[in-house]
Amino acid sequence: MRLLRRRWPMAIICILGLIIFLGNAPGIFEGNMIKGKVNENTAQAVSGTKAYDGQADNVKNQSDNSQGTTAASPAASDLKGELKVHFIDVGQADSILVQQGNAAMLVDGGNNEDGPGVKCYLEQQKITQLDYVVGTHAHEDHIGGLDTVINSFKVGKVYFPKQTATTATYKDFVKAVKNKGLSFTAPVVGDTFKLGDATCTIIAPNGTSYEDPNDYSIVIKVTYGNNSFLLTGDAEAKSEAEIVAKGMNISADVLKVGHHGSKSSTSQSFLDKVNPRYAVISVGKGNDYGHPTQETLNRLKNKGVKIYRTDENGTVIAVSNGRDISFKTQPGTY
Ligand SMILES: [Zn+2]
Questions:
Q1: Which residues lie at CB < 5 A from ion ligand 1?
Q2: Could you tell me the residue range of the domain that residue 65 belongs to?
Q3: Which of 7, 21, 243, 311 measures 20 to 30 Å from 204, CA to CA?
Q4: What is the distance in A from the centroid of ligand 1 to the CA of 58?
Q5: Is the Cβ–Cβ distance between 145 and 114 less than 8 Å?
Q6: The total number of structural domains that make up the chain
Q7: How far is the CA of 134 from the centre of ligand 1 (A)?
Q8: pLDDT for 178-236, tens place per residue?
């Protein structure tokens, strides 16, 4: 598949993908467009101690853009549309498309090689504009494909934590943002913004300096009517503990399991507070990290949380009407 993808021009792959998509939307990435790939940047390539080193001109504080903490979703009974959350199968990586009405947000863009596939997937969803692009943190498996996405679509605002890296991936990401005349918006915990009739609330990061780059991950709660989704990036137990200590309402119907199901995330106290009905694990088949770990799977199983896994069933699509959530994908195994 890798050879095929290299030899075939992306336009042909995209058209082929569209044909396949028309017949079988949720399975689009299974085996042809994006396949599991084991690639996670080494921790030393990314640091977070000096916020936005060398990128100061590219940073602005969010407070001038924030719609404040008062933005609220309409009552479930008033909602006429749907909130659609696509956990795109990008292998051992994250890329999540959130759609409400004509508004769209992309949280992470997979690895570098996933960029064209994510772009193609967005085009298939008839996306021409992304109101928000969120790079949860600086690792390649989250921001790798975002330069391609930013270069390809109209983009409103780009959220990125106060973290920097020396990698070519990070530099490409920054360059794409700058070339578009955009800048990073730093997440401020508690701030909210609207995505159509949905409300997004920044939950983390709560600290300013972390040893583990994953803990810089932007965590967002998306609320639509009575339903909610918690998107956690690769936040680890440290960030989870801070979130719990903060005392915000983090209960959610759907938890995007942190760090691809690593045992160092989804700590029991955090899971108890979120208390999800469903969990989605974005993970590559046969990855080198042993993700998702049995410990995390057991924690979810013991709470009776139904799980969905991109390694088992490809792209996972959840649809909320503000009252109920349905999945267009088969459940996964523990
Ligand atoms: Zn990751």
A1: 141, 234
A2: 2-34+56-327
A3: 311
A4: 24
A5: yes
A6: 1
A7: 14
A8: 999 999 999 999 999 999 999 999 999 999 999 999 999 999 999 999 999 999 999 99
